[in-house]
Design a protein that fits this description.
The complex is a heterodimer of chains A (336) and B (307). With 336 residues, chain A is mostly helical. Chain A has one domain (2-243). Chain A is 72% helix and 2% strand. Chain A has 14 helices and 2 strands; from the N terminus they run αααααααααααααββα. A two-stranded antiparallel ribbon of chain A has the order 1-2. In chain A, helix 2 (30-56) runs antiparallel to helix 11 (212-238). Chain A is globular and about 60 Å long. Chain A starts with a helix and ends in an 18-residue tail after the last helix. With 307 residues, chain B is mainly alpha-helical. In chain B, strands 1-2 form a two-stranded antiparallel sheet. In chain B, a hairpin with a 2-residue loop joins strand 1 (138-141) and strand 2 (144-147). The two termini of chain B are 34 Å apart. The chains are: A mainly alpha (336), B mainly alpha (307). Chain A binds chain B through residues 59, 123-124, 126-131, 133-135, 137-139, 141-142, 144-146, 149, 198, 202, 212-213, 248, 252, 255-256, 259, 263, 302, 305-306, 308-310, 312-313, 316-317, 320-321, and chain B through 42, 87, 90-91, 94-98, 100-102, 104-106, 108-109, 111-113, 115-116, 233, 236-237, 240-241, 244, 274-275, 277-278, 281-282, 284-285, 288-289, 292-293, 305-307.
């Protein structure tokens, strides 16, 4: 029995956290709602990264490429037809003359993310160690460069605007839950177990017949599809997007969230994201002046980034294995 | 390579520019490679050391040239040592991912601090160096206009590499550093003091960062918080492409990626030149696939790599 109980807790703990954030977001003022939505969409992005980085132990800087592809594909396809034809004049006719709803665009983004990951994963997943990390970085640079310059598939260097902002509290919560559920199912299946075994000890995993590179390839595809999906959620939350928003800064921030939470667990991915997002929102409030436990806080502007970066560095120095220590949430022994 | 490039219709002009970029990148590569050798740490915040140097130069631009340069070296080396004491030392022995992400955070931190620093009345202004700026003038060598800074960059790079090669090969501390880079725990068992070699590597890499900041400021006098960020990323990639396990392959990798970006930008048709990063990083992926241990890493691997 306790096996199933453990599994239930492993899934429910992050899910309940996300639902709690989603519920709180419906009670706050519209001005503050964006902080909660950003946190929820970040959960989806970080969980997508976790599926590959956390389970395989290979650092990838390239997962934001799939977020970018998902965001732009979904964004371009949902801009209303009249405005698209007047603004995005260079598009391929197929993209220019069709518009789809937000929900199909989420599916489209997930499929595209998965297919893109499949195509680039075929060569890239043969690499290991630092070479793999750097190759995924090169992938991010190429994706950014092409999205920024090729005006036949998107807005190029200009802002893609007029995307319907359909990601509200409900959609963001459900989106994050879907990402968590997929990640949970993946890490509990044979494929996930094999990959996690190869992360802990590549030689031993090989000895029991695990094809390490093939397992990484499957995780890369799942991660790519989830990242594309998360990118679509992201663009529908923002309503407008530029290529710079899905590039280096997002890559570093989401990786930091994952490592701060604890790279090797789903709970770590979710807790790290919520902790960093929470701190970030609190600090941006404090810059505008906020009452906190009776004290009036009013930080000069610019302190947000400094404090955020300092706290991230401190957490990593004091607790290198992350807030969760890389472990899943478990019930205390006497309840099991 | 040079003859091949010339036969593709490249002029000496483009080649000399490419060599200048390559020389500066090689200097950054040595700074990153030295620290990686002893600490197994990819220092992403290295670019922010260069940025700090550029800010120091900007602030002291009214001073005499030598005062300004000495201050720049002092600030960057001090910051480099502070980084080692405050960040690298507590993290020693952690997994590469944790170390790398921590240096991301440090890079963010230094950038955020730089954002708050105003130069010239609230704007991160354009700092034109009356004295250093003269290096941008060209001299005519055999029908080719070569900017003076090219000579300075290539000269500095060669000089720095020579000094470092001598230090590593002819001094005790250099021998210790090489031993530590090959196998840290065995070296310690044989009496190499870890903190000394690490401090040595960190100070040298700080000196190099200061030199790079001066060279970069000449061609790019607009000092901003993301100064040298792009260069550092490209060099980090180049270092891995060249082979990060040995200092000279790492340096060569840094030079190659700088040189290659110069050559590719000259070869691309004008209307396609915006796709320079795609071509360059596409090549990076191809090279990594063909030679994952490093483009110049001949012979047997120095460390058994974890898959």
């Amino acid at each position: 029995m306790s096996r199933y109980l453990d599994a239930a807790v492993e899934l429910l703990a992050p899910a309940v956290l996300v639902i709690a954030v989603g519920l709180v977001s419906t009670t706050v003022s519209p001005a503050n709602e964006i902080y909660f939505l950003t946190a929820l969409v970040s959960v989806a992005i970080v969980v997508a990264i976790y599926v590959f980085v956390g389970n395989s132990g290979v650092l990838s800087f390239g997962q934001i490429s799939f977020v970018a592809v998902g965001a732009f594909a979904s964004g371009v396809m949902t801009v209303p037809l009249e405005s698209k034809q007047s603004v995005l004049t260079d598009l391929f006719p197929l993209l220019k003359n069709h518009t789809i709803g937000s929900v199909p665009s989420l599916v489209l983004a997930a499929v595209l993310g998965g297919v893109f990951a499949l195509v680039v994963g075929l060569p890239l997943m043969r690499l290991s160690g630092l070479a793999a990390g750097i190759a995924t970085f090169a992938l991010l640079e190429i994706t950014h460069n092409v999205l920024q310059q090729w005006t036949k598939i998107g807005p190029g260097a200009t802002t893609l605007s007029l995307v319907p902002d359909t990601t509200g509290p409900l959609q963001a919560t459900v989106g994050a839950l879907i990402a968590i559920a997929v990640a949970f199912v993946y890490q509990r299946t044979r494929l996930g177990r094999k990959l996690r075994a190869s992360r802990e000890d590549p030689a031993a995993a090989r000895a029991i017949g695990v094809d390490v590179h093939r397992q990484r390839f499957w995780a890369f595809i799942v991660s790519g599809a989830l990242a594309g999906f998360a990118g679509a959620l992201y663009v529908h939350m923002l309503g407008s997007i530029t290529t710079e928003q899905v590039y280096l800064e997002l890559t570093f921030l989401t990786l930091a969230m994952l490592v701060i939470g604890g790279t090797t667990s789903l709970a770590g991915a979710v807790i790290g994201t919520l902790a960093v997002s929470g701190l970030n929102s609190f600090l941006s409030q404090a810059e505008q002046g906020v009452h906190f436990f009776g004290a009036k806080l009013d930080f000069p502007s610019g302190t947000r980034l400094i404090v955020l970066a300092a706290v991230m560095a401190l957490v990593l120095i004091i607790r290198p294995s992350g807030l969760t220590g890389g472990r899943e949430v478990r019930l205390p022994r006497r309840f099991r | 390579v040079i003859i091949g490039a010339l036969s593709w219709g490249l002029g000496w002009q483009e080649l000399s520019d490419a060599v200048a970029i390559g020389a500066i990148y090689a200097l950054i590569a040595v700074g990153i490679g030295l620290v990686f050798g002893v600490l197994r740490l990819v220092n992403f915040a290295y670019g922010q050391l260069v940025m700090a140097g550029a800010y120091t130069l900007a602030f002291t631009s009214t001073w005499a040239l030598w005062e300004s340069i000495v201050t720049c070296f002092a600030v960057v080396v001090a910051l480099s040592i502070a980084m080692e004491l405050g960040v690298f030392r507590p993290l020693r022995g952690q997994s590469p991912a944790v170390m790398l992400v921590t240096t991301f955070a440090i890079a963010f931190l230094l950038q955020a601090i730089a954002l708050l620093v105003d130069i010239h009345d609230g704007t991160i202004g354009e700092i034109v160096f009356s004295q250093i700026g003269a290096l941008n003038e060209s001299v005519n060598v055999g029908g080719v206009d070569v900017r003076k800074v090219t000579f300075v960059a290539v000269g500095t790079a060669l000089f720095a590499l020579l000094v470092i090669a001598l230090l590593l090969n002819r001094t005790t501390i250099g021998l210790h550093t090489r031993a530590a880079a090959a196998d840290f725990s065995t070296a310690r068992l044989l009496g190499v003091r870890a903190n000394r070699v690490i401090s040595f590597a960190v100070v040298i890499s700080g000196l190099l960062a200061a030199a790079v900041s001066i060279l970069l400021v000449v061609s790019n006098p607009l000092v901003s918080p993301d100064f040298a960020l792009h260069e550092t990323i490209v060099v980090l990639i180049g270092v891995v492409v060249g082979g990060i396990d040995r200092l000279w392959t790492a340096t060569l990798g840094g030079f190659t990626i700088g040189f290659a970006s110069g050559v590719i930008s000259a070869l691309l048709p004008t209307d396609q030149s915006v796709y320079l990063p795609s071509v360059l990083f596409g090549l990076v992926i191809v090279v990594l696939l063909l030679r994952p241990a490093g483009l110049f890493a001949w012979g047997r691997p120095t460390t058994v790599e974890r898959v």
